Amino acid sequence: MIDIIIAVISITLSYYYAAFVNGYARSGIWPGILVFAVSFLIAYILICVIFWVVCCILSLTVSMKREYASFSRFYGVLFGLIMEYAACLAGARVRVVGKDKLPKRRFLLVSNHLSNFDPIVTAGELKSHSLAYISKGGNFGIPMGRRYMKRCRYLMLDRDDTRSGINIMKKAAEMIESGDCSVGVYPEGTRNFNADGLLEFRPGCFKIALWAKCPIVVEIVKGTQNIHKRFPLRRTKVTVEFAGVIDYEEIKDKKTQEIARMVREIMLGKIQEKAGGMCK
User: Fold this and answer.
1) What is the pLDDT of residue 34?
2) Beta bridge partners of 131
3) Which residue of 32, 147, 173, 185 is 20 to 30 Å from 80, comparing CA positions?
4) CA separation (Å) from 236 to 175, 222, 262?
């Protein structure tokens, strides 16, 4: 969306500037086209710079020392726009499937994990859905991004601290149950470099859905592992598919291992479908 807006503004400004120059100098059609092309490039770059500067300035209003009690819809949408634009600049052409399946109430989002671009692409596509991720500590060191993550109530996970992990899951469940925001997790726990399969799940994360009494949205991401390989010369087709929703009533009496198997079956079914049945 934001890339289209910037492009439209740039085209509009370039058109009027080229028309003004051509009308004043009466230089003919080809010089006019050249003026339009150059002015569009300059306008696009300037608007991009202005967009990023404004985003940086707004991020400075977020305190890293404060514990925010609620998700900010304004910063959530803005952060989503930033993520969407970052994915676009990286060359991702995103196709979304099954977005109409998303429940109106808050949910636990679970997905396969192929690349660092996974949460960037998903956050961009779900910018209007108030989504916070459970994320590794290293991501909270990203300049500007860490402030938006803080304001959007992203939760920092210490993989080496089991007690901290339990507290994070309880907090995530509270955020969902209160209706503040949905929460996203990666059951595999880390990136999987085999796009045709899944790593072993860490079933503990499904306690969040049990504690929050919320539905589980199963997401499949395809193609993000190729973005860094093709940048900057080629664009990358990325598919985000919301493959299914598991209602709380279906899992309330199940153990986390059983829920993990349910989710895994849905994911593998879609991965095998996309791989033409070659995946085991």
Assistant:
1) 79
2) 182
3) 173
4) 34, 10, 30
